[in-house]
Amino acid sequence: xxxxxxxxxxxxxxxxxxxxxxxxxxxxxxxxxxxxxxxxxxxxxxxxxxxxxxxxxxxxxxxxxxxxxxxxxxxxxxxxxxxxxxxxxxxxxxxxxxxxxxxxxxxxxxxxx
Length: 113
Description:
Layout: E1 7-11, E2 22-24, E3 26-29, E4 32-36, H1 44-52, E5 54-59, E6 62-70, H2 76-86, H3 92-98, H4 101-104, E7 107-112
Antiparallel strand pairs: 1-2, 1-5, 3-4, 4-7, 5-6, 6-7
């Protein structure tokens, strides 16, 4: 899934049902899949992840149940580099939004269940 351009991320809600999936960019850093909320910690999907820390991701016809976990903040520079490399064909302004301090504060890793 780390090679996918985008993935659909559907956090579980308090009652165990899935939220509507959000389409997000994903990178692999040190064997870990990492995602960020371009809108920071206030985005709906990021706030939902903080409630249950469980959900489902899908890309290319593959679906996986995952646990959402905090990222070691010391990895943020490596994650920035991974985003810049993987999505380099996009405008600098777009890349800038995913490596902004707001997005960096909303970085999580995806762990298989």
